[in-house]
Amino acid sequence: VNIMTIIISLPIVTLFPSIVAATKTLKDNMNEGSIFKCYFKNFGKYFLKSFKMGLVIILIYGVGLYGYFFWSFLIDFEKNPSMEMVAQIGIPVIVISLIVFTFMIVHIPLLMITFEKLTNGEIFKTSLFVAIRYFITTLLMLFTVALVVGILLFSMVVPGILAVWMIIGISLPMFIVIRVTTPIYYRFAKIDFKKI
């Protein structure tokens, strides 16, 4: 699962669909015969919805980072001093928004595979609720993601670690996150959203 996810993620736009496919494969299809067949079946099944979600995520991060750098570095406050107060308010708002959004997106792959009938907008709302309601679990998930990225960056300095990361770098942390969050999503799966 790890190597397939890495290869399919090489074009940035397929990163999120490959993560959703890996999540579904690790969560439900580990006992089935061919892991390749299950992975690509899940990739095809969730591709369109997760591709759109991935584009929205990239767009939101892009706009947020552009706003941060615009207000931090591109405005000359000596020429336009009135904009300094706007920047002092805007920069913290942008940073807090990006942090909250980061807390939300760690839950999105699990929500997509647990609630297949929810729209992307409903998944965003639900991920905000889950991220706040289960804050400690969300922190654990973020720590796991940071660990994966950190080991990848460290492996660029120490090449021997890259081989190990290629084998277990994404799938093992993802498997741990799935097992830790199973009780939460088991309870959510029983909720009838049409009654709410």
Count of DSSP strands: 0
Provide the residue-averaged pLDDT. Answer: 86
Span of the ends, CA to CA: 36 Å
Uncertain runs? none
Number of distinct helices: 9
Q: What is Rg?
A: 19 Å
List the helices and strands in order.
HHHHHHHHH
Largest beta-sheet characterization: none
Q: Roughly what percent helix? A: over 70%
Structural class: mainly alpha
Strand content: under 5%
What is the 3D shape?
Answer: globular
Explained architecture:
This protein has about 200 residues and is mainly α. It contains nine helices and no strands. The longest helix is centred in the first third of the chain and has 40 residues, at about 35-75. It is globular and about 65 Å long. About 25% of the residues are buried. The model has no long low-confidence stretch (mean pLDDT about 85).
Briefly, what is this?
By secondary structure, the protein is mainly α. Helices cover about 80% and strands about 0% of the residues.
What distinguishing features does this structure have?
single chain; 196 residues; mainly alpha
How are the elements arranged and paired?
Layout: H1 2-8, H2 15-28, H3 35-74, H4 83-105, H5 108-114, H6 120-133, H7 135-155, H8 159-168, H9 171-189
Helix pairs in contact: 1-2, 2-3, 2-5, 2-9, 3-4, 4-6, 7-8, 7-9
